[in-house]
Amino acid sequence: MCEGSSIYEYIGEVESAIDRFGWALQYVESEVDRDGIHPAFCYTVGLTGYGSPEIVVTGRDPNESSRILNALGASVASGTLEAEAGLACWAAGFELFTIDVPDCAEILHAASDVYGKGCFSAVQAVWKDVEGSLPWEGMPSTVVQPVLGPLPS
Predict the structure, then answer these.
(1) DSSP 142
(2) Which of 67, 122, 135, 137 would be 104's cystine partner, CB 3.0–4.6 Å?
């Protein structure tokens, strides 16, 4: 755990942030292990309390991820956005498209610890690149921005 906290202390801090701000953000740094490269990602914990799926962003640094997720979280909390798969929207200067994240409890550990496995859902906010393409359009590239769910048809 970060800075020597126990899992219980850390989850207490996450729950405190949810109580104070409406949601918390969890950034997971990239790592390389024997199974390969695991790119960084960031996600919300707390949008479930608004009846919404949690939201995940991959392939952006902590600052950009925070800006995107906080903008989306504020829209969900105010009732101006219903986060669901198939949504096209703008947030923090990024054009986004959302897809379902199946088995989200397997990767969104803080949300699993707060809500319990199987008690929340998630969507990924997939961003368009500088050419205006999503990872599955044109020259597919899921190296920079891994796609965590099924591609839209």
Answers:
(1) -
(2) 122
Q: Does residue 103 contact residue 143 with C-beta atoms inside 8 Å?
A: no
Radius of gyration for the chain, computed over Cα atoms and rounded to the nearest angstrom: 15
Residue 136 forms part of a structural domain: no
Q: Does residue 126 sit in helix, strand or coil?
A: strand
Structural domain including 10 reads 2-127
* Cβ proximity of 83 and 53 under 8 Å: yes
The reply to whether 118 falls in a domain is: yes
Q: 86 in the Ramachandran plot: left (φ > 0), alpha (ψ -120 to 50) or beta?
A: left
Number of domains in the chain: 1
| 39, 146 Cβ separation under 8 angstroms | yes
Cα separation, 80 vs 54, whole angstroms: 16
Per-residue pLDDT of the chain (153 residues; tens, 9 = 90+): 556 778 889 999 999 999 999 999 999 998 888 887 778 999 999 999 999 999 999 999 999 999 999 999 999 999 999 999 999 999 999 999 999 999 999 999 999 999 999 999 999 999 998 888 898 886 655 557 889 999 887
Q: Confirm whether 147 is domain-assigned.
A: no
Q: What is the torsional sign of CA 64, 65, 67, 71?
A: positive
- Whether residue 143 lies inside any domain: the answer is no
